[in-house]
Amino acid sequence: YGDHRDLHSFPPRRSSDLNDVLAVDCSATGLAIGRRLAQREQTTIRTLTADLDEITLDKETYDLVVCFRYLNRALYSNMKTVLKPGGLLFFKTFNVHHLVSSPKFNPAYVLQPGELSQSFNGMVMIDLNDGEDPKITQSWIVAGVGNSYRLRLNEDPGFGPRDSVLCDHSNCVQIDEVDLQSDDVIFYQNF
After folding, report:
1. How large is the average pLDDT for residues 103-132?
2. Cα–Cα distance between 180 and 115 in angstroms, integer?
3. Are 98 and 105 in contact (CB under 8 A)?
4. Distance of CA 94 to CAs 58, 85, 98, 124, 134, Å?
5. CA distances, 177 to each of 44, 85, 142, 180 (Å)
6. Is the pLDDT reported for residue 67 higher than 50?
7. How many CB atoms lie within 10 A of CB 28?
8. How far apart, in whole angstroms, are the C-alpha atoms of residue 74 and residue 152?
9. According to the model, what pLDDT value does residue 19 have?
10. In sequence order, what are the residues at sequence separation of 6 or more whose Cβ sits closer than 8 angstroms to the Cβ of residue 134?
11. Which residues does residue 144 pair with via DSSP β-bridges, in sequence order?
12. Nearest Cα to Cα of residue 136 among 104, 110, 117, 162
């Protein structure tokens, strides 16, 4: 399913449904863990040890950008521009409510309520939790580039109660795990 770039989100879990994964992290150790986890899942990933502040990402190159538990607001624009038309962004990290249980956590690295919807304005919002609920300590967004994606819940026979499907005009992607409150990476497949 095209090229995928995982922005600083190691260790990855279950990328076995992906054809070509490029994982970027400044930690060679984290990338080595990612490669071992990929081998355990009987898949492979390409890795690049790099600081995302110091590399240039090509525009409209990737079908998917995934970023979990890493906040660098300077990368928001790049996360949008590296996606191909119809590409998807999966982003999740801590919000201000995390500071209640972890007061020593650096407040510069938490999202403010409403920050994701403002920062990724212009993208098609597929799933969004933007920090309004004080009981939820992480915020997330699943968003698409362009208007070709739409979310369908249980419209097709054969999909279970938790299944969701993203469709454009010719392809569908089944999302097996759409609950971003968990720490699991979303499993998906093109069909």
Report:
1. 95
2. 17
3. yes
4. 27, 28, 6, 22, 12
5. 21, 23, 12, 8
6. yes
7. 10
8. 32
9. 61
10. 97, 100
11. 88, 124
12. 110
Name the nearest CA neighbour of 171 among 47, 86, 68. 86
Enter the tokens of residue 134.
């004080």
d(CA 170, CA 13): 28
Confidence band of 176 (pLDDT split at 50, 70, 90): very low
pTM exceeds 0.85, yes or no: no
Give the angle 106-75-80 at the CA atoms, nearest 5°.
135
What confidence score (pLDDT) does residue 185 get?
37
Structure confidence at residue 68 (pLDDT): 87
Give the count of beta carbons closer than 10 Å to the beta carbon of residue 191.
Answer: 8
DSSP calls for 101-168: H-TTS-GGGSBPTTHHHHHTTTSEEEEEE-S--TT--EEEEEEESSS--EEEES-STT--TT-EEEE-
| Phi, psi dihedral angles at 17 (to 5 degrees) | -85, 0
Please state whether beta strands 83-94 and 138-144 pair in parallel, antiparallel, or not at all (unpaired).
Answer: antiparallel
List, in order, residues 6 or more apart from 155 with CB less than 8 Å away: 165
List of residues 6+ apart from 164 with CB closer than 8 A? 151, 152, 153, 174, 175, 178
For the residues 58-63, what does the mean pLDDT come to?
Answer: 88
pLDDT for position 49: 93
Look up residue 171 and give its two tokens: 């392809």
